[in-house]
Amino acid sequence: MLNRAKEASDMLQEHIDKDNVIRLVSHNDADGISAAAVLANALKEEKMRYHVTIIPRLKEDEINKLRSDKSSLFIFTDMGSAYVKELNTFKSDVIIADHHQVNDAEPDSNLVHVNPHLFGVDGSKELSGAGASYLVARGLNKKHLAYFALIGAFGDMQGQDGFMGMNKLIVEDAKESGTLEIHEGLKIVSKSSEPLYKSLAYTFSPPLPGITGDLTGAREFLEKMNLSYGIKFTDLEGEEQDLLKDALMNVNEDIFGLCYTVPKETPLLRDLEEYAYILDACGKNKKFGTALGIALGERERVLDVAVDLQRKYREQIVKGLEWAKREGAQQLNKIQYLYSEDKVLKAVMGTIASIGLSAEIFDNSKPVLGLSRLYKDIKISGRTTRDMVEKGVNLGQALQDASKNFAGQGGGHDIAAGAMIPYEAKDNFLRLVDEIVDYQLENS
User: Fold this and answer.
1) Would the pLDDT of 80 be above 80?
2) Are 147 and 38 in contact (CB under 8 A)?
3) How far, in Å, CA of 223 to CA of 225, rounded?
4) For the purposes of burial, counting CB atoms within 10 Å of the CB of 56, is it exposed (0-12), middle (13-18) or buried (19 or more)?
5) CA 148, 117, 69: angle at the middle one, nearest 5?
6) Which of 9, 148, 230, 370 lies 20 to 30 A from 382 at CA?
7) Which pLDDT value is given to residue 59?
8) 266-283: per-residue pLDDT in tens?
9) Which tens digits make up the pLDDT trace of 2-46?
């Protein structure tokens, strides 16, 4: 894998030496934005000309549009592995730095494909899209950018239980460069910027059943300990912080663990997991320029905008979880699903599915699909648990195979995946996914 990444680094270095214009295309979530940030920062340091495009998904019409671009090198980050055949037709050089499941298309000589799945490494837990992008930049002596790969990993839910696989190498690079510190602490969010009850209710990972996504539950939890719910965590006395830690560990012992920080950063961005949440909120609200601006070093006004987006996004998630608790998931034989046409809910459906499983709102013995209507189409965000993956579930494959039957597209990871299908195919699609998951479990 490192040899393949070195091939990509060498290709990138050739274009740097020639002072060529480089085009970056990346996904719009925290991992994709972090992936773009790794390479954008590397190119900025090399005083290169580059152009960044952030998109929700790579489609054939987007590829056709890019094909006419005159850039000498295209780099697709956190996407592209499903389109090797199409990207082979580019006259320019191409690098794919992705971690999603791959197909059997072979790259031509002008394309370097960096993906952990090609080397038996699990891209759903051992390397993120930002991690794959970092491995490309690593060959340019950019270990000080390694922490961006860890931000992407947190955004892709890979760091919550400790880093493994290639991610551990990246942690070591970040530590070696002097940018990263690791210490034990409470893994609640916004310790210095939100009232304590909101910090607890907005802590989605690790989940706190009865508290996560529940402002009333969080207030009642604090009141039982005679702690003021309106105070910030950082304003608590040491004894009060210890009391809270012990009580939260009784709810979920994982709430106390390793925290990864960049001490040189502004306080709001110091914790890498918090940094990932801020980028994710910008991405979900289509404020890609704001997210990239932060990752490239802009602060003050831009950061204020991002924090406001994050606050509103968290409020949307809380409303979504309240809706999920109230309505429940619709049950099929081997899967469950949520469906809404509400504008607020469709923006957070994938997050609701993920948190709903981990916070025990849904039956965690079944994958959950969150469905949102977008005009004539349905957007699907699928989530399952690591336990179900070990029993044979591969959501990325299931959504890819099912969507093809209805002129749609889909894919992703075994544990988290997405798809887009025509609206009229909704019921038949759900039945087919249910059958595919049943087959996966029976034949694992």
Assistant:
1) yes
2) no
3) 5
4) middle
5) 65
6) 148
7) 86
8) 989 999 999 999 999 999
9) 999 999 999 999 999 999 999 999 999 999 999 999 999 999 999
CA 105 to chain centre: 25
Assess contact for 279 and 33: CB atoms under 8 A. Answer: yes
Collect all residues with Cβ–Cβ distance below 8 Å to 327 and sequence separation of at least 6: 338
User: For position 344, what pLDDT does the model report?
Assistant: 83
User: Do 213 and 317 contact (CB within 8 A), yes or no?
Assistant: yes
Structure tokens given for 186 = 């409470």
Mean pLDDT of the chain: 94
d(C-alpha 69, C-alpha 73), whole Å: 10
8 A C-beta contact, residue 245 and residue 254: no
Is residue 162 pLDDT above 90, yes or no?
A: no
Asked if residues 189 and 274 have their Cβ atoms less than 8 Å apart, the reply is: yes
What tokens appear for 139 in the block? Answer: 């060959």
β-strand pairing of 50-55 with 22-27 = parallel
Rounded to whole angstroms, the Cα distance separating 409 from 255 reads 37
User: Over the stretch 335-391, which tens digit does the pLDDT of each residue have?
Assistant: 999 999 988 888 889 899 999 998 889 999 999 999 999 889 999 999 999 999 999
In contact, 252 and 206? CB cutoff 8 Å = yes
The confidence score (pLDDT) of residue 223 equals 95
User: Taking CA 399 as the corner, what is the angle to CA 121 and CA 438, rounded to the nearest 5 degrees?
Assistant: 95
Q: What is the CA angle 47-51-53, rounded to 5?
A: 145
Task: Spell out the SS3 assignment of the chain.
Answer: CHHHHHHHHHHHHHHHHCCCCEEEEEECCHHHHHHHHHHHHHHHHCCCCEEEEEECCCCHHHHHHHHCCCCCEEEEECCCHHHHHHHCCCCCEEEEECCCCCCCCCCCCCEEEECHHHHCCCCCCCCCHHHHHHHHHHCCCCHHHHHHHHHHHHHCCCCCCCCCCHHHHHHHHHHHHCCCEEEEEECCCCCCCCCHHHHHHCCCCCCCCCCCCCHHHHHHHHHHCCCCCCCCHHHCCHHHHHHHHHHHHHHCHHHEEEEEECCCCCHHHHEHHHHHHHHHHHHHCCCHHHHHHHHCCCCCHHHHHHHHHHHHHHHHHHHHHHHHHHHCCEECCCCEEEEECCHHHHCCHHHHHHHHHHCCCCCCCCCEEEEEEECCEEEEEEECCHHHHHCCCCHHHHHHHHHHCCCCEEEECCCEEEEEEEHHHHHHHHHHHHHHHHHHHHCC
The model carries a pTM of 0.88
